[in-house]
Amino acid sequence: MVKKHIRKASKKISAKKKNKSKTLKRNINHAEKYYQLNQGWPYLDDLKNLVLKISPPSFPKIERGLVRIGKIKLAIITGTFLNISDARADIMVVGDDIDFKKFISFIKTVEEELGTELRYVILGTDEFKYRYGMFDRFVHDILEYPHRKVIDKIGKLVARI
Amino acid sequence: MPPMLLYYTQLKIKMALNSNNILEQLFGVKAKLLKLFLQHPQLILSMKDIVKRTGIKKREAEKLILFFTKSGILKKINGNGKKTHKKSK
Questions:
Q1: Is the ipTM of this complex over 0.85?
Q2: Is the pTM higher than 0.90?
Q3: Which domains are assigned to chain B?
């Protein structure tokens, strides 16, 4: 009787061990795979030229998207839009009554188009004026880097730069 | 070519030329994936990231990536950081 029990127990243990090893193998098989551009592909430079030259970002589309978000006085685009790697932000939006949900969904659509995460700044008009007046470094950096004004209703203030 | 068909093809060409994104008109969804990888050559992305960043459906993305890896534009990297090699027969 005792022997039978021992055999059963040993069988159970061995079955558990087998199951464990199977699950481990499964985990290894399902390890996530990652993908990267193959730098050694012979036609890479040609393809890069073609793709990146043909598809510039569509500024009117961005303007249309931003107008719907709220009362926007100034929208500045730099960074990834203009292929500037060391810019401090990609979009700076100045305005009032901005619908943040709409803004975030707009940013998501642009991110999908560009394939990159965007760094954005939203400022109220008064805050922008205050920061601009006190020579805030962040705001001035954005304005001093090469940029493009998509919407500009505070023209007089920023035109000095 | 019948006149109506000619008209529609001309219209299509006009639309394609007027739209900002000619690349996507030419290559479809493939353009999105290509742009993602070509703009950031050092990025290593999982399937999840690719789907999230491009907005392409997962099945479609899988098919395209298989095509790109087979043609040599992309390379596959395992989770442990090792490049995959095909077994020699």
A1: no
A2: no
A3: 24-79 (1.10.10.10)
